[in-house]
Known about the structure:
Blueprint: E1 5-6, E2 22-25, H1 26-34, E3 43-49, E4 52-53, H2 64-67, E5 74-79
Antiparallel strand pairs: 1-4, 2-5, 3-4, 3-5
Amino acid sequence: MAYTEPVKFSKTNCYGCGHEDDVYTVAEFIQAVESGAFIDYDGYGHPVRDGMSDTSIVICPSTAAEDIPSDATHVVWFNR
């Protein structure tokens, strides 16, 4: 895994953060998926650790539990 792309955020769980990236803790992201807030049609994410994302890993809501690496602390979300 290569966490190489910087992610810009000052708070999490804030959809449409304007000039910052949409970032969620892993728990917040899983909760959003389970509640139906994110579905595969909506977009995709990448895992984040230490403020950096790994763009080689794509996180789909339908397979989020399997897609999110165990060392990730957050997910950066890209809406379609």
